[in-house]
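Archive entry: two folds, one per protein. Generate the first.
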Amino acid sequence: MIHAINMAIFLQSVIPELDASSTLRVHY
């Protein structure tokens, strides 16, 4: 399923941002 692959890529790009949410809050 192409949709499943897109979701996997999306999660891989979002999870690191969630892990560094504290750092992102400092920058923004």
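Generate the second and append.
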Amino acid sequence: MNDQKTSPTDYGFEGYLDWVISSGVGGIAGSIVFGAFIGLFYPNIVSVTIPSLYGLEPMGGFGWGLHLAHGLFLGVIFGFLVTREPALRTLVLEVESGTSYGPSMRLTLAGIVYGLTVWIALPLLALPIWTSITGNTDPDFPAATAESFIGHLLFGATLGFVFSNFIRISERT
């Protein structure tokens, strides 16, 4: 019986930065893209609404700081999930099919799925519970809008793309 644990490097994850830093940077980049996109439709969403969800007054770039912290945290969760054994096997598996997606494209697609999951879990499920408990609510918060949906997909795509480019994935056979 093999008692050795597999690690990301066993699957060819190596390189520039480790998975924690790479996923954190990807999460921050994704939250910047998401914030810029949603800001086109709701200009005060990041600077005013996000602090108000915590019962805080908006001041300076505090809302953006919270938004980037959310992205960092969610990015590290993504990195943790995709560097575990079941996900690693799937993401680097060579499949015999007509279309050949490399690990970088697979990580970007995994990021999109993760963005969709975050959209369902946080603004659609957790946010209503949070606001009912705290009483901090903003009627203008775009939880279940097309813009929020697309923004979360952009977050995930950016996260997966940045992560896959900061982590070099060598083809191991």
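Annotation attached to the second fold: The mean pLDDT is 83. The chain has one domain: 13-90+101-169.
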